[in-house]
């Protein structure tokens, strides 16, 4: 580890960028994932690394997330100084980044990750098309518009997220 | 070649429609649903049995007919071959599919296993109907032990 407290380091960590070497030491990871349908029903929620809860019941948390996304989307399109292309993509704070993907049918995939993670639209799209559509929409026993009960979906989603290059098993 | 998903969605709706709650006054309702679905499969199987065999391999023996089911019929319906065929050489055959497409989306393991058999009714009829066109009378039943694998048991009838 580099020390910046005035002492001359005896060795340096080689990183790609000379600006922020400490970024290489931050493990990148996925915190959690929400899946909503067009009516705001939370179809699925999974958590991998979440150190702090919202402090409100889960149902309220889902409503809060959905409501906020709904408002941000319409705000972004209204205030955009140019013609909208993809719309709202992500926001970040000093600790985490929220990624958003919406399909033409109104299914919304929301993933919270570490700051080091770049655009992951293709990942969220894969979650929609290869997991949600294949295992939930095409499952005769999964009624649409309700929370997903399928164990297969849950476990495949879990394996997929854990296999992502930016997922680290060590908690950030 | 039509997208396989079209048939899958149609099949899902057929099962849902026939097992809709108000058509279920006790076990009498369930049996009727099964036989309706099996009947549908039977007639489709009969028609496919006429239409599918392109090369006129004369289906002389039972085993040829079973091979036709496992290879040609399965490939046309489900875009794959049957994974296993066993027989006791006395008219009973067990066809094993380890990744049956109509069950693939439901799960792997034990969730949904009670609901799974109704999704096999149509296919049982399909196998029976195809064999009928080829000149063999049979009785077909199906069982599921662990999704998405299933077995179809074909017992040839001596007429």
UniProtKB/TrEMBL annotation, chain A:
InterPro entries: Longin-like_dom_sf, TRAPPC. Belongs to the TRAPP small subunits family. BET5 subfamily. It is found in: Endoplasmic reticulum; Golgi apparatus, cis-Golgi network. This is Trafficking protein particle complex subunit. May play a role in vesicular transport from endoplasmic reticulum to Golgi. SUPFAM superfamilies: SNARE-like. One of its GO terms (cellular component) is endoplasmic reticulum. SMART domains: Sybindin (SM01399). Its main location: endoplasmic reticulum.
Automatic annotation (TrEMBL), chain B:
One of its GO terms (biological process) is endoplasmic reticulum to Golgi vesicle-mediated transport. The keyword Transport applies. Gene3D superfamilies: Trafficking protein particle complex subunit 3. It is found in: Endoplasmic reticulum; Golgi apparatus, cis-Golgi network. Keywords: Endoplasmic reticulum, ER-Golgi transport, Golgi apparatus, Phosphoprotein, Transport. GO terms for cellular component: cis-Golgi network; endoplasmic reticulum; trans-Golgi network; TRAPP complex. It holds the Pfam family TRAPP. The keyword Transcription does not apply. InterPro entries: NO_sig/Golgi_transp_ligand-bd, TRAPP_component, TRAPPC6/Trs33. Belongs to the TRAPP small subunits family. BET3 subfamily. PANTHER family: TRAFFICKING PROTEIN PARTICLE COMPLEX SUBUNIT 6A (PTHR12817:SF2), TRAFFICKING PROTEIN PARTICLE COMPLEX SUBUNIT 6B (PTHR12817). May play a role in vesicular transport during the biogenesis of melanosomes. Part of the multisubunit transport protein particle (TRAPP) complex. Heterodimer with TRAPPC3. The heterodimer TRAPPC3-TRAPPC6A interacts with TRAPPC2L. Interacts with TRAPPC2L. This is Trafficking protein particle complex subunit 6A. The gene is Trappc6a.
């Amino acid at each position: 580890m580099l020390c910046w407290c005035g002492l001359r380091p005896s060795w340096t960590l080689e990183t790609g960028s000379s600006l922020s070497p400490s970024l290489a030491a931050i493990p990148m990871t996925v915190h959690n994932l929400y899946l909503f349908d067009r009516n705001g029903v939370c179809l699925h929620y999974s958590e991998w690394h979440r150190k702090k809860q919202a402090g409100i019941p889960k149902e309220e948390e889902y409503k809060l997330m959905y409501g906020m996304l709904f408002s941000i989307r319409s705000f972004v399109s209204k205030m955009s100084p140019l013609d909208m292309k993809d719309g709202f993509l992500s926001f970040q704070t000093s600790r985490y980044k929220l990624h958003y993907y919406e399909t033409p049918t109104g299914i919304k995939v929301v993933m919270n990750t570490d700051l080091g993670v770049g655009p992951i639209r293709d990942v969220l799209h894969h979650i929609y098309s290869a997991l949600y559509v294949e295992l939930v929409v095409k499952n005769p026993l999964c009624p649409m518009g309700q929370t997903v009960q399928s164990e297969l979906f849950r476990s495949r989603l879990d394996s997929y997220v854990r296999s992502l290059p930016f997922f680290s098993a060590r908690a950030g | 070649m039509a997208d396989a998903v079209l048939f899958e969605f149609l099949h899902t709706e057929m099962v849902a429609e026939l097992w809709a709650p108000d058509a279920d006054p006790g076990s009498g309702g369930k049996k009727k649903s099964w036989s309706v679905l099996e009947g549908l499969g039977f007639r489709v199987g009969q028609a496919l049995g006429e239409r599918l065999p392109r090369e006129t391999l004369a289906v002389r023996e039972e085993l040829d007919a079973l091979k036709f089911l496992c290879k040609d019929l399965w490939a046309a319906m489900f875009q794959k071959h049957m994974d296993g065929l066993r027989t006791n050489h006395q008219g009973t055959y067990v066809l094993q599919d380890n990744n049956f497409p109509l069950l693939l989306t439901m799960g792997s393991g034990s969730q949904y296993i009670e609901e799974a058999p109704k999704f096999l009714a149509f296919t049982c009829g399909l196998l029976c109907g195809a064999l009928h066109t080829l000149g063999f009378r049979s009785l077909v039943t199906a069982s599921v032990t662990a999704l998405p694998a299933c077995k179809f048991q074909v017992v040839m009838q001596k007429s």
